[in-house]
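Propose amino acids for all 205 sites.
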């Protein structure tokens, strides 16, 4: 994968970076932790501009987040509630959990999207609940855009400063990302095992 990413960045420039970051949001095994430091290193060699690299990466990543936001809007809260009533264990959600999530996003949606876009493994997922609870599109674009461009700027800047040592960034962030994703998977399995339908919960729970 490293050689493929390297070849695409070198041959396609800004368009290639934007495309890779779009794919990274749609197909998470393509890691931004490798794409953006490599793009920053390419800028350091004078083949691309650092600002252009950050903008291209941010646009591609934001487009991917917008795709998942659209899927969440299409799914909608009421449809998801019906699914939760039938398949709550596998979704690890009950209809009342979704009401709580809607209330949370009403109060803290901007901060949740902003910081979610900075966390590996959560960066893509945070767009879905934002769409499901119908977070206003301008607000989603604002907060998601801020988080996205901060993330791409940090990675590209690290690659630019480290130059030939840019692989150090991906070597460090890669294991951290794997730990976060692993923790998310374990938490999901825990939720599946311990899930109790609303009708089977203690009164007042």
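Proposal:
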């Amino acid at each position: 994968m490293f050689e493929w990413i390297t070849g695409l960045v070198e041959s396609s420039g800004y368009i290639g970076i934007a495309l890779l970051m779009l794919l990274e949001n749609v197909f998470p095994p393509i890691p931004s932790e490798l794409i953006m430091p490599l793009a920053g290193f390419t800028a350091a060699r004078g083949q691309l501009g650092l600002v252009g690299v950050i903008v291209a990466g941010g646009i591609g990543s934001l487009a991917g987040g917008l795709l998942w936001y659209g899927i969440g809007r299409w799914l909608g809260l009421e449809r998801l509630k019906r699914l939760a009533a039938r398949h709550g264990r596998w979704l690890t959600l009950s209809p009342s959990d979704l009401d709580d999530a809607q209330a949370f996003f009403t109060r803290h949606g901007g901060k949740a999207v902003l910081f979610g876009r900075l966390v590996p493994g959560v960066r893509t997922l945070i767009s879905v609940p934002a769409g499901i609870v119908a977070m206003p599109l301008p607000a989603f674009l604002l907060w998601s855009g801020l988080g996205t461009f901060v993330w791409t700027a940090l990675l590209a800047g690290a690659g630019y400063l480290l130059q030939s040592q840019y692989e150090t960034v991906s070597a460090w962030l890669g294991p951290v990302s794997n730990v976060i994703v692993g923790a998310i998977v374990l938490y999901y399995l825990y939720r599946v095992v311990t899930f109790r339908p609303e009708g089977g919960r203690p009164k007042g729970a």
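The mean pLDDT is 77. The helical segments are 2-26, 32-44, 50-75, 77-91, 95-116, 127-132, 137-162, 167-194.
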